[in-house]
Amino acid sequence: MRGLELARAYYVTCGKPMLEAQFPKLLPHIAVGLFGSGSECFGYDDDISRDHDFEPGFMLLLPGEDVVSRRDAFLLERAYAKLPREFLGLRRGLMQPVGGARHGVIRTTDYFREKIGVPDGVLTVGEWLSTPEYALAEAVNGAVFFDGPGEVTAIRRRLSAWPEDIRKKKLAGCLLLMAQAGQYNYARCLKHGEKGAAQLAAIEFARNCMSAVFLLNGVYQPYYKWAFRAMRELPRLSLLAELMEYLLTTDNHGDMAAEKTRVIEGVAADVIAELRGQGLTRADCGDLEKHAYSVNDSIADGEIRNLHILAAV
Fold it and tell me: Were both Cys, which of 124, 189, 212, 302 would link to 197 (CB 3.0–4.6 Å)?
């Protein structure tokens, strides 16, 4: 059983009856779920993941003290701590007095402020440009099992995808860096005999290509250790994950360097084809730099469009 399934089963079997019996008046104000940090929240947990932070548990998200008092929150936390220590053969760890970082009682505003810097999911342009993508992914992953007031669901909906102009700005920056690193600097570094620098160029190309692929799918890229797995599951350009792995894990000698150059150009062509398919570029060439500026030119908001093309990356 995956961690998210375990959390839901533990809530339905143990948590929900406790809430209904002991806190019926609080139920309309409570949200329950599991999302945030941890492979289980993305559905990526496996046997190796169970070596830490794998246990029955869920989050109880509360509104402010004007709705649910500090005392009620304390009583709810104490009741949560008394839930069965074992469930389906797995043992739950001890909770901290004010709730764990991933499970237990958490104020909704505290959670989202810690995760993305604001309590309500309303981000300014500057905040959209600067908030780490993995943090946005952790704000909307996992699942909400119950949401009495609907507040948590509403916040997650606000954060569910980039605003289109922000997506384009980030995409333009990634395309420009792909062009500089892959289509220009990789070959030049090799001509200078700088194989290490060439590999750094390949890494930069791959890193920004992966970011571009997530942006073209309209999906947040998770923390780097899950990026390849997540990319392989995307509906668009998922096959490029294998080529990125090839660029990152091969050397830069002789025929291998020539092959990597061909791979870089092939990947660029695939990305350009997707840009055209989505109507994101008017450029008519194989140069990613020109497509980067074309994407940037299509941004509707003048303030965002006129920011430096790399402002979002």
Answer: 189
pLDDT in tens, 169-211: 999 999 999 999 999 999 999 999 999 999 999 999 999 999 9
If we measure between CA atoms, which residue out of 67, 62, 64, 49 comes closest to residue 2? 49
Task: Identify the band that residue 98 occupies on the pLDDT scale cut at 50, 70 and 90.
Answer: very low
- Against a cut of 0.90, is the pTM above it? yes
Calpha distance 1→161 (Å, rounded): 29
| CB count in 10 Å sphere of residue 152 | 24
Q: How far apart are CA 184 and CA 230, in angstroms?
A: 28
254: phi > 0 → left, psi -120 to 50 → alpha, else beta; which? left
Is 147 in the same domain as 226?
no
Strands 59-62 and 104-107, by their bridges, are parallel
d(CA 131, CA 114) in angstroms, rounded, equals 12
